[in-house]
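Case study.
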Amino acid sequence: MGKPSDLVQGTLDLLILKTLTLDAMHGWAIAKRIQQLSGEVLQVQQGSLYPALHRLEQQGWIKARWAESETGRQAKFYALTAAGRKQLETESANWSRLSAAINLIVSEA
Amino acid sequence: MRGLDRLAMAMRVLFGRSRAGAQLESELRDHLERQTEENRAAGMDHEEARYAALRAFGNPALLREQVRATWSWGWIDRLAQDLRFAARQILRAPSFALIAILTLALGIGANTAIFSLTHALLLSTLPVPAPDQLVRLAIDLHNPRAEANNAPLNVPFAQFLNQHAQSLRGVFGWSVYDFVFTEAGASRGFRGAIVSGNAFQVLGVRPVAGRLLTPADDQPGGGPDGWSTVISHRMWVGHFHADPSVIGRRITITDHSVTIVGVAPQGFEGMVVAEHPDFYLPIEFSAALNNNEDQLHSAAGLWLMTFARLKPGMSRRQAQAEIKTLFPVMLDDLMPPAVRHLPVVERATLDVDDAHSGWTELRLEYTRPLLLLQILACIVLLICCANLSGLLLARASARRHEFAIRGALGAGRLRLMRQLFVESLMLALPGALLGIGLAWLAGPWILHSLDSRHSQILLSPKPDATVLALSVLCAFVCALLFGTAPAWVAGHTNIDAALKISNRRAALSGGAARRFFIPIQVGLSLTLVVLAALLGASVVRLHSDDTGYRMQDVVFHYADFGRLPQKGAALVDLYRRITARMEQMPGVDAASAVGVLPFYGWIFSESLTSASDAAHAKTTVTDINNIGADYFRAVGVPILAGRDLRNNDEDLHSCIVNESAARLFYPHGAAVGSTMHQVSHDMGNGTTTVDDCQIVGVVQDSKYDSLRETPPPILYKPYFDASGPVSSLYFAIHGRSVAAAETAYHQAIHELAPASPETDPAALSELAGGSIAREQLLSVVSGFFAALGLLLSGIGIYGLVAWNVSQRTMEIGVRMALGATRGHVFLMILSQTTSLLAIGLAIGGVAGFFAARTVGSFLYETRAGNPGVFLASAGVLVAIGMVAAMLPARRAVNIDPMQALRTE
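After joint prediction, the assembly is written out as follows.
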C-alpha cells in the first residue's frame, strides 16, 4: 500500500504544504516527516516528492534556498510562501469537506 | 509579487538551464546519500544500504525527466536539443540540404512573387481610420456590349449625394491626374490626384506637416491660399529634404502658381491602388488648367471616381437601399428631361461597392489572371513538396536503423516525429528566406520583360509585412506537407525488426513509398504545361494574326498643342503643314494625323445609319475614328474602292468606311457615293444632332481596340470640321525605320511648332503588344511555372532512379553475372519509370482537361480541349522523364558484376 499513484490526486501537494508550515526543510526530511507523522501508514515513494516539490515551486507556493544543513553539507531547503499558506488553507478546507463527506457515506453504510 | 517571482524563476531556469540541472543532480544525490547513511546506521552493509535507498527512491532517470517537465521553460531545452540535432543531420548531407532549400526557394519564391502582386492590387487595406466604412459609388450602365459596366460619376452627382444621402457621412471625388512641376526653369512630369475638398476630412487622414485640403480650397479660382496643394511624404522627404518651411511656399504646377499647404502622411497613396501621387490638388484646379469650368459642373460626362464613408452603424446594404431610391431623384434633378429618359439613362443604376482596399480599373482586367497565377504558383509549390517528400522519405528510410536505436534508448514516438518535423522546418525556413529574395529580384524582372504600361503600374517595390508573413507561414505549411511522410516513417519504425536487418536493406524498402510521389509530380507538371501551352499558343496566335495594319516602322506621337496660341482653323493649318513637312523628310513614306490610336484600349463610337434605304436601315452603334489624308498609307491599310480623304475643306462632309461597315450598311449595293447619318445625343442639353457624310472610299478591315477582337466596322471621318480640329490628335508617321520617323517628327516640331513640348513615341507594334498585356503576363509567368514544374519532376525522377540503381547494385550485378544483357538491365530500370510516368500522365491529363476549361476566357483561337496541345505537353514530359531516368540507368548498365558482388 501507499504507493504515490494510490494517493488521491493533489494529496501529496497538501501533505508537502502541511509539512512545511512549521519549518523550512530539505527533500529527504520532508519524506521522513510525512512517513513519521502518518505513523508509517503513508509510504510515499521518496523520489516522487521531487517532481511535486518542483511543481509547487513553479506555482509559487513554496520557495527554495540552498543552505548548509545540520550535516555541514549544502542542501536545498524548501519553505512555504504567503501564497502557499493561502493555498494550504483552501486545500485543507477542501480536504476536510471531502473526508467528512466520505466518512458520512462510509459510516452510513 | 507572485507573478514576478515566477518570472524571475523562469528567467533563472531559462538562462541557468545547465546550472538548474546541476542543482537538481546534487539535490537528488544528497537525498540518496542521506537515505544510504540512515540505512547503514540501521545496520546494513554499504552495498545493501545503497540499493535499499534506490528502491525507496524510485528510478532516478525517470524522476529527473519528470522534474524537468515541471520547469516552465523545459520545452526550450528540448527544442534546442532538436535544433542542434537537426543541424547536425543537415550538415552531414550538405548537398542534399542545398537541393532541398533551392527547391523550396523556387516554390515559395513563385508564390511570394505572385502574392505580392495580388496583395498590392486586390488586398492591401488603405491606411486610414475605419477603412471598412469606405465605399465606392459607380454607375452600372447595363450595357450588354461592354465587358464591364463600371462608369464613374461627375462633380454634380458627387455633390448631390454628399448633400442628400443620409447613410453616407461624406461623398468625395478622387481622380488621378498628371501635373508638370516647374522649378528653376526645369519641368518634370509627376503623378498626382485631383480630389474633392472634403476628401481628406472624410478619409480621416492627419497631415505630417501643415494642413490638408478643405472644401474652402476647392472653389473656382482657389481658396484662401490661392490654389493649394498637399504633397506626398515621399516628395517632402525626397525633394524638399523634409524642410518644414516648405509649408506656405509657392511653386509652379502646370503653369499655375500653387501654395504647398501640407504634407500627407507616409504610406498614404490615396484611393487608387497602384498609383503613387505626389501632388494632391482640388478638383476645381483642373477646370483652371483646361479652362472648362462649365464642363466640370455639367452632369453630362461620367469621369470622376467617387467614394464615400458610411455613417457609423450603417451597412453597405442599407446604403445601397437608400441610394437605389435616391438615384432616380438625382437624375430628375440634374439631367434635362430629354436626356433623363434616354434608354441608356433609364437603364443605369448606382452601385455601392466595398472600397476598404481602394479601387483601380486594373482590377477589372487583372483579378482573374492573378488568381489563376496564384493557383498555378500553389501547384508549383505542391510539386516542390512532393519532390522533397520523396527525397526526405528516402533519407528517413535509410535512417531507420538510427530511429530504432534512438527508440530503444527511450525516445518516444512523438519525440521522434517532432525531431523530423524540426528537420523539415530547418530546410523550409531558409528556403522561404531565399524564396523571398528570389521573388524580390525576379518579380520586377518578369514584369519589366513584358514591357507594358499596365505591368509597370503594378510594380510594388516595397516588400510588405503581410507578404513576408505569408511566405513564412507558407514555409511552415510546406514543412508539414513534405515532413509528414518521413516523420511517419520515423515514428513507426519497428525497433526490433529495424535493429535486426542491415542498414542497406532498410533503405531499399523506402523506394516503394517514395515511388508514390512521382506520379503526383508528373500529373501536376502536366497540368501546368498544358495550361502554359494553351496560354502561350493564344499569345502566338494573337501576334501572328493579321491586324490589317503594317506593324513595322509606324510611330505615333501625341500632338501636345494645348498651350499653342493657334486655335481652330489656324490649328488645322498647322497640322497640315507639319504632316506635309514630315513627308518631305528623307526616309519618311507617309505622315498623317489621327484622333484615336489603334490598340489603345479606348474607342469612340456613335449611332450610325445608312441614308440610302431609310425605311429598312438599321441604326448601329459603330466605331468611329478621325483621320487626315494619307493615314491609310501611313499605317498600311489598302484603299479598296474610291479614294482617300483630301486634307481640305471640300472633304468636310466626306467619310470612308471599312469593308465590314460597307457590308453592314450596304449589303446589296455599292457603298461609295452613299450617305451615312450619324446620330449623336448631347448628354448635357438633350439635343439630338444628325450629321450626314458621303462615303468617298472603302478600305480594308483592321483591328481597332485590341488584338483580341475581330476587325469591327469602322467609319473614318476627317480630323477637322468647320470649327477646327477634334480635341486631341496624334501624328502617325511611317518611315524607312523608326529612327527616321523619329527624326522627322522632332525636326518638324522644332521648325513649325517650337513652343509645344515634344512627346514620347508609341510604336504601333508596342501599342498592339500593350493591348494583350494581360495575355502576355499569363503566358510568360505560366510558362515559367511550367518550366519549374518540368525541372522539379525531372529532378524527382532522376533522384528516384539513381537511388534505386545505387541500392540495387548487387542485384544488378547478380543478374548480369547470370547472363542478363546490358539491354535487359537498361529496360528493367526504365520500365519502372515508364509505369510511373504513365500513371502521372493519366492523372495530369484529367486534371489538365478540367483546368483548361477554367482558362477558356483567356484563350484566343485556341480550343481548351485541343488534343494537339495535350499530346505535345505529354510528349515533353515523357522526354524529360526519360532523359532523367536514362542518366542513372546508364550507370546501372556499366556496373561490373564482379565489382558489385565483391563490395557487398
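Observations recorded in class. The first helix of chain A runs from residue 11 to 19. The first strand of chain A starts at residue 25 and ends at 26. We will return to this complex in the next lecture.
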